[in-house]
Every structure is written in structure tokens, then in C-alpha cells.
């Protein structure tokens, strides 16, 4: 087995990166925290809107939006229960519980 020292490996990888036109700026350019936060917010908001849109009609999308609020900020819907959400949307409590379970799983929230 051939012994290669660490300096030789670094020299070879640097030469390869430079010959490929890659200066390694990924590791040297600082990440703007505001840009990173903006990108993460857009990603989260997009996932939420896609989850809402999976409802087949406007009523189901409204139920999904209300269930999302129930899971994340119940104070914004005056603390109503899943059964009450179901009654307002014309579906049973078990169906609303299933929607809440799907929301938590889709968003990576712990039940």
C-alpha cells in the first residue's frame, strides 16, 4: 500500500479544484444570515401553501388552513377544538383529527 502524506493530498485536491474552475469559494464566502433566513421562510411558506392546496375544494382548503392554525397557533382561532372545526366544515371529528395528524407529519412536527 502506498503512503501519501496529508500535504500531498491537500496539494492534489487544490490543483484538481483549480483545474476544474472551482476556486473553493463555497468554503470561504460568508453566508448572509438575512438571505438564509429569507430562503428558509420562503421554503416553509411554500410547503404550507402546497399542503393547503391538497384540499379538493375551497371548503377542504379552509378546513386545512384552520387545522394548521390549530396545530401551530390555536390562540388565533380562539382555541376551538378539532370537533368544532369539523362541525364548521361539515365533517366528523375523526376526519379532522386525521387532517391534523397529516399536517403534523407533513411539516415534521411532533404530535
How does this structure look, described?
With 111 residues, the protein is mostly helical. It has a domain at 31-107. It contains six helices and no strands. It has helices at residues 6-19, 25-28, 33-53, 58-72, 82-89, 93-107. Helix 4 (58-72) packs antiparallel against helix 5 and helix 5 (82-89) crosses helix 6. The longest helix is centred in the middle third of the chain and has 21 residues, at 33-53. The model has no long low-confidence stretch (mean pLDDT 83).
- What is the element string, with H for helices and E for strands? HHHHHH
Q: In what range is the share of β-strand residues?
A: under 5%
Structural class: mainly alpha
* Assembly form of the protein: single chain
Helix coverage percent: 55-70%
The shape, in one word, is elongated
Strands, total number: 0
Spans where pLDDT lies below 50 across 5 or more residues: none
Mean pLDDT: 83
Count of helical stretches: 6
Give the biggest sheet. none
End-to-end Cα distance, whole Å, is 53 Å
Task: Report Rg.
Answer: 25 Å
Biased composition (Polar residues): 1-25
Region (Disordered): 1-30
Question: What labels describe this entry?
Answer:
single chain; 111 residues
Question: What's this model, at a glance?
Answer:
Residues 1-30 are annotated as: Disordered. By secondary structure, this protein is mainly α.
List the helices and strands and how they pair.
Layout (H helix, E strand, L loop, with lengths): L5 H14 L5 H4 L4 H21 L4 H15 L9 H8 L3 H15 L4
Helix pairs in contact: 4-5, 4-6, 5-6
Amino acid at each position: 500500500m502506498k503512503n501519501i502524506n496529508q500535504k500531498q493530498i491537500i496539494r492534489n485536491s487544490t490543483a484538481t479544484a483549480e483545474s476544474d474552475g472551482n476556486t473553493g469559494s463555497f468554503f470561504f464566502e460568508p453566508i448572509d444570515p438575512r438571505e438564509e433566513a429569507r430562503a428558509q421562510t420562503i421554503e416553509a411558506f411554500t410547503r404550507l401553501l402546497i399542503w393547503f392546496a391538497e384540499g379538493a375544494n375551497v371548503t377542504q382548503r379552509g378546513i386545512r388552513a384552520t387545522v394548521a392554525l390549530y396545530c401551530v397557533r390555536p390562540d388565533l382561532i380562539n382555541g376551538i377544538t378539532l370537533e368544532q372545526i369539523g362541525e364548521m366544515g361539515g365533517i366528523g371529528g375523526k376526519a379532522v383529527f386525521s387532517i391534523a395528524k397529516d399536517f403534523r407529519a407533513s411539516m415534521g412536527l411532533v404530535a
